[in-house]
Task: structure prediction
Amino acid sequence: MRILDMVGDTPLLRLDKIAAEVPGIVLSAKAEFCNPSGSVKDRAAKAMLLDGMQKGLLKKGKIILDATSGNTGVAYAMMGAALGHAVTLYMPANANAERKRMLGGYGAHIVYTDPLESSDGAYLAARAAAAADPGVYFYPDQYNNKANALAHYDGTGAEILRQSRITHFVACMGTSGTFTGVAGRLKAHDSAIRAIAVQPDSPLHGIEGTKHMQSTIRPGILDESLIDDVIAVSTEEACAMTRRLAREEGLLVGISSGANVQAALKLARKAPRHSEIVTILCDTGTRYLSDSFWEAET
Amino acid sequence: MAVTILIPTALRAFTDRKAEVEVEGGTAGEAIAAFAGAYPDIRNHLYDDGGNLRSFINIYVGEKNVKNASGLETPVPDGETVMIVPAIAGGKAPAPDCGARSNDKGRRP
Result:
């Protein structure tokens, strides 16, 4: 077995303590922190790199280059090391310390972009660098690469159907690869399954890796026709649920996982009895230990 | 004292797309309050219900994060910049160049 073979087939965990206030509802979450680099992004990164190899775009000696706010970069860095490719990542300078250190640990080269410009500054810089030297770089372009969403259509979505009797799927969106791929797969199986997108409540937020779609331009792979409803979550709510997951369920996960579970709980309060709600635990909380929100008592 | 607020792209919808504005303030807290006063729609994005700056927002005076100085009491010299940055990078990508999007539900993307 190789490290890339460890991607996917993650457990579906029941969140019974969190769901105690909504009797009759099953609340479950995909443990995506079980992927080898610690996040759901391993699925998309693996799919985009293998797609590039199959198309002859990712050849020996090429450098993998993309923009990332963190998790995709860590996945590329791990896989680049395993596959023998150098990795260059464009990342906003305000990405957190753990990510920067992990990327350095894998030997990736990081180019920091203006923190005020968020991920769009990183995106523009990465795109320009890839276009200037196409012979040097392989540029997956995670926001616009269909292999990203297909990884979740063929992988995450199919796994959820095997592991549950899902009625509602809830997930936040960054590139929207997870949401678009999983929701597409679930609705292909049963068009009655509802897909609910999670949104930060403000364009200025701290829910890492998620987009506030009203104030930002949509990723190319997003299929909005799959969105049945949208639930807004504040950064404070997401952080509070992240603490609850650690303290009540023993799950030390990241802030976007907290946002997903908080939105799933909001949905559960108004969902019909016997609904089975599935969401995503996007990454491990060890990536956020330098953040102060862990210090609150509740 | 006149200081320059550097505005993140996420908030520029409220500032007529301006990337920076000049305000009066002797401390980081005064400068941010003056900024919120000039653009009232921004207030709820910067402050919580108790009137405190939302905890995930970092304020830099020049190159220095005020969390490593005197917080919102950190003095701002005349002509200095005050930068507003969320603690963690959120995702935002500009318009992709790709073509039409499928509206067929339940198809492979």
Notes: Chain B is about 15% helix and 20% strand. The radius of gyration of chain B is 18 Å. The CA atoms of residues 6 and 79 of chain B lie 12 Å apart.
